[in-house]
Amino acid sequence: MAYGATMGTFHYGSATDLLRINDHVLAHLKLVITTKLRRDESFTLSWVKPEADGPGRCTLWVHPSMPFRFDFDDDGPVQIDSALLDGLGAESYTSRGIVIPADAFEPSPVGVS
């Protein structure tokens, strides 16, 4: 799925812990993460490393005591995709946790969304 060309940053933990991710997916993650943390619900967030970072995968334990910041490159609102939002929300209740789609780390060509 093509998400759009703007890439935001998901900051977690220390100031150096960050993840560059598509603004569209980041907006959906923000909604799911803030909803879960408001309910005091912890979960895992995983992704396969972008090719430029070398092979492997990462998993975070997301907990209300962990600092997070969502920086969006686009200053406009993101149109919410209810299927993506529902899918991420449902994943958050599984033992696998939320898995960020691999294509969320690649900006789409301009004009593709």
UniProtKB/TrEMBL annotation:
Protein species of origin: Microbacterium nanhaiense
Domain DUF7882 residues, every copy: 7-100
Protein name: DUF7882 domain-containing protein
Domain of life: Bacteria
Xref: Pfam families: DUF7882 (PF25355)
InterPro entries with a match to the protein in the record: DUF7882
